[in-house]
Amino acid sequence: VFQKWVNREISNFDYLIQLNTMAGRTYNDLAQYPVFPWILRDYTSEELDLNNPAVFRDLSKPIGVVNEKNAKAVKEKYNFEDPLGMIDKFHYGTHYSNAAGVMHYLIRVEPFTTLHIQLQSGRFDCADRQFHSIPATWQALMDNPNDVKELIPEFFYFPEFLENQNGFNLGQLQISKEVVNDVVLPKWAHSPEDFIYKHRKALESEYVSAHLHEWIDLIFGYKQRGPAAVEALNVFY
C-alpha cells in the first residue's frame, strides 16, 4: 500500500483510510473512529487558492501547537511535576480522536444525534458547545491548546452531515442569539457539496501530498511515543 501511495497509484484519501484500518480504527467503534487531519488554515478568504502554501495547516505539528502561541502552555503542562508521581507526563489531557468528538461533528445525523443526547443526559448540549461553524471551530483550535480534535473522514465525502436536514432544535448562541442550524461554511464554499469538493481537492493537492507523511508520523508513526513524541510536543494523557 505504501509503495502504491508513493507512486501515486492511490489517492491520499484512500491511503489514510487504509492506514486507519491497519491501525485498528473502524467506523464500528466511536472510541477508535478513523482520524483525518485538518489540512487547511484558511477558512475566511472568498476564494481558496490551493497553489498558495499559506492556506495549508503545518502538517508537521500536532494540531494543539499549529498556533505557535500555544507551544509555551503545552510545554509548561508537560513540565508540571505530579507531586505523587502517579501520572505520566503529557502535553494534552484530551485526545485528537474520541467518541465525544465524533458525535460532536456528526450531531445532525442519526444515530449520532441520539447518542449525543444520551451522552448529555437526555438533551442537546448547550448551543455554544455545538459544532455550528467550520471557521469558528478552526479559530477555537488556534485559541485554545486544550482543544486538539482532528477531523473525521466525513469532512471529505459526506456533505449531509453539514446540514440540519432533520430540523433538530440545536438552540441558539448566547451572545449573538444566532440559531444553530446548518453548519456555517468557510466563505469560499458556496454549499455543503462545494465545501466537500474543495476540501477533498485540497487533500489531494500537491502541498498535502508532499507533507502528509509528517502528520502520519505523529498519528501512526514514530512520533507517537518516546523521545520523538516529547520533542514533537505530541504526548497525550
Automatic annotation (TrEMBL):
Q: Which GO terms describe its biological process?
A: intracellular protein localization
The protein's GO terms of the molecular function aspect are:
protein kinase binding
Cross-referenced Pfam families: Beach
Chain ranges of the BEACH domain: 1-237
Q: Do you know which InterPro entries this protein is assigned to? A: BEACH_dom, BEACH_dom_sf, BEACH_Domain
Give the source's domain of life in one word. Answer: Eukaryota
**Gene Ontology CC annotations of this record:** cytosol; membrane
Keywords from the UniProt entry: Repeat, WD repeat
UniProt xrefs under PROSITE patterns: BEACH
The protein's name in its UniProt record: NBEL1 protein
Source organism: Columbina picui (Picui ground-dove)
